[in-house]
Amino acid sequence: MRRLLINKIILTLSTISALIGLAFLAWILVTLFVKGLSSFHFSLFVNDLIDNGLRNLIIGQFILAGMASVIGIPLGMVAGIYIREYGQGRYANLIRNLSDIMMSAPSIVIGAFVYAIIVVPTGHTSGFAGSIALAIMMIPIVISTTDSMLSLVPKELREAGIALGASKYKVIFDIVIKSAKVGIMTGILLAFARIVGETAPLLFTSQTSNYFTLDLTHAFPSLSVSIYDLASDVQTSSRDLAWAASFILTVMVLVINLTGKFITRNKK
Amino acid sequence: MEKIFQKFAFSSATLVFIILLGIFITLFNAARPAINEFGLNFIVDPAWNKEVPITTPQAKTDKSVTQSAVSNTDDETVDVNDFGDDSDDMMMQDEDDTPTKTIYGGLVPLVGTIFSTLIALAFAMPIAMGIAIFLAEIAPKKIATFVGGAIELLAAIPSIIFGMWGLYYFAPIVAALFGGFQVSLLTAGLVLGVMILPFMAAITRDSMNTTPDILKESAYALGATKFEVIKDVIFPYSKVGIIGSIILSLGRALGETMAVAFLIGSIFELPHKITDPTISIPVALANNFGEASGLGMSSLFYLALILFVMSFAVISFAKFYFLRKAN
Question: Which of B152, B136, B153, B154 is nearest to B144 (CA)?
Fold first, then answer.
């Protein structure tokens, strides 16, 4: 009897834990929707921050993350291909482990690193430095996705290619990558969702700007960094704008994230 | 073409190694002035950005003299006090003339980082275990997929959102329950706990799912209750994986910046209670990097180096010791 009672208590507690987790998610999302929508207005997409809009920030955030993807995705994919297809035992394993460690490296430290190697020599913050910082965060994520997606491709496919006389390079690009395409694309989408909401690596690399600019050699508008500035502002109007911006940022991140998950689920 | 691609692939993979090494060397170089100046004393010194005279002045003895004089009638006391204030001011001026230096110590942010992480772990661990048990053993498949997806969604929310929500909605409740300040070690730790919750729950669930069904079924066949199966079969089997997931979450929590920046209070003071405001290493970097220069800047890099080494050590420990065994 006592065993059954303990069993019941523990199972109830576990279920309550799951409810607590869901409650936190609901609490945050509801807060965002209520606060965000109450200060939301379509003029936010038309004006720049200097006129109390968010247009330049949203575009800036996408450009920063986009530039990071342009740098990070090819490098990460090729490195992932290396450790799965070319790498010999120990070295590939070492890189795999280091890449996992790099994935969990504090993002603010990456910001400090990029500050030291780019912002200090050039003398000022730039969109370019921000993109590099985000790219450094993205590379290990892309590596680990590519690596695990390639590992799902059956060995027989590669052997068939080689038996036909194709070079290794051809086998990788025409057979292996093609069959792992959806998985890799999804992983990249999730990696993009992960970096597009980042703040810490941008704080002192790209900073943010009140004006619309496409010039990556100077301080660059960033939605997340501006949220930090606005949210700690004493004026309520700034804070309302911060809530609207947070709402937009979260919706952006969650939509990209869910799209990625949806693709994976459909494939299965 | 084949050769070129192979070379390119090799260099890309090596880039990971170069970046990690580059981070270490760059931080070390930038921190070197501070390392030379303060050495390892840095991590036990609670003073930050504090002016100290290089030569110890006579001020202390002077002060004790004036204070001992304050023991007569009231009127005289006031006079003496005035005099005392004046002399203090004069001494301050004297101190300006004597060469001073600014000292930096990393104890406060270090303590803030470690304690906020520990609070986060203490808060997240039981809930994450509960969620993992619920997902792996209790819920029917459909519900498990839904709840699991929702919990993963929690992990996708940008950290700055946790910070804003924490500051304006969570902190007032915590302060009302536990007293003390709204921005404090406690609120920062709790919000950090909410942030690492999904991560911890997901890896724990994955480790628990590696338990072979046949072991569980044998235990059920012997008449064990679900809890007994979890406690005596699943936990022992997936123990290393679970411990690894906890340590990995700890590594995540150490470096979290934005959520903590809103909530920890950002003052360089040692907390006496957990409801006191203080600062953590990432927050010290985030808030002071813009204005710092010279030795102050170098000290920030020193902090960054300490954080990097800490998280590197914690994560590789989890990876090599626990998670490799689990695989």
Answer: B136
Please identify among residues 94-133 of chain A the ones whose CB lies closer than 8 Å to any CB of chain B.
94-95, 97-102, 104-113, 115-117
Q: Which residues in chain A are closer than 8 Å to B144, comparing Cβ atoms? A: none
pLDDT band at B26 (very low <50, low <70, confident <90, very high): very high
* A193 contacts on B by Cβ (under 8 Å): 156
Shortest Cα–Cα distance, A211 to chain B (Å): 20
Is B8 in Cβ contact with A78 (below 8 Å)? yes
Domain boundaries, chain B: 53-101, 107-326
- B206 to chain A, closest Cα gap in Å: 16
Q: How far apart are CA B187 and CA B193, in angstroms?
A: 10
What's the CATH class of domain B107-326? mainly alpha
Instruction: List helix spans (H) across chain B.
Output: 2-38, 59-69, 74-97, 107-133, 141-156, 159-165, 171-178, 185-209, 213-221, 226-229, 235-255, 258-263, 281-288, 294-317, 324-326
pLDDT at residue A137 greater than cutoff 90 = yes
Q: What is the ipTM of this complex?
A: 0.92
pLDDT digits (tens, 9 = 90+) for A140-196: 999 999 999 999 999 888 889 889 988 888 888 888 888 888 889 999 999 999 999
